[in-house]
Hints:
Blueprint: H1 3-9, H2 13-39, E1 48-52, H3 57-72, E2 78-85, H4 95-103, E3 107-111, H5 114-121, H6 129-147, E4 151-153, H7 158-172, E5 181-183, E6 190-192, H8 200-210, H9 227-241, H10 245-252, E7 298-299, E8 302-303, H11 304-307
Amino acid sequence: MSATWTEEAGVPAAPLKIERETHKLEKRLCREVGRAIVDFNMIEDGDKVMVCVSGGKDSYALLDILQMLKARAPIHFDIVAVNLDQKQPGFPEEVLPAYLTRLGVPFHIENQDTYSIVKRVIPEGKTTCGLCSRLRRGILYRVADELGATKLALGHHRDDMLQTFFLNMFFAGKLKSMPPKLVSDDGRHVVIRPLAYVAEKDLVRWAQHRAFPIIPCTLCGSQGNLQRQQVGEMLREWDKKYPGRIENMFGALQNVVPSHLLDGTRHDFKGLKATGVADEDGDKAFDAPQFVAPGLGAIGGVPALRVAHL
């Protein structure tokens, strides 16, 4: 689009640029969510998807994108938005019903005072997320049964999954993240995370564009020393200093090589024997390591190609 065309049309260049960028963002969000749905078979023909809407940017964006995809999907599925009003002091209970009514999407508001339970059980200054999450999950599973929902959609995104990976590695000694799709403990519910491929920074931009009526969480939002917040800050700093590192780390979650880790339950190290047959996936202990993924950057100030030799 030339400057001459813009000037002749009488439209300032800046708004047109913003409009183009917003359109590109919308296409990228729909493409990434659609890709996740297909890759993990998240939504099938005839599904009733219960979208859990908390009032935060992520769940608003999830509902927004699924509504757009519903209109163009090759299959039919229904959407119902569900919010759990946990009776937190000062919670603006009128905001979500008004927004969802205006949006024209079927919705259900579940009123349960889990706030009082959490505050009574968890000592002052301790992290409330664990108990709050368990209570919320049980209630949402019950509501899904009552509404006849076949899938529960949560608004966790790519950065949430990476944070969970590092939290488990740093504090639980496990290589474990958030799965894009799982079955509940009782085996009765399928939970999906359609934002699995979406970057948080794109959701922030989309929330600003759509002017979602964000409702902050007063129960846990003030806990400034949460381990998840610390890990999130670490990842954001890495993303700023080493562009591409976040993408590479997320890609690693989809490219696991059990034979090159140390978990004997995932690979039969004890039974491993030489076969005399060449194996292209076999060990190359005497080869120089090659890290060719773009944007890997450096770790602790050491160039990536040198790290493997330390």
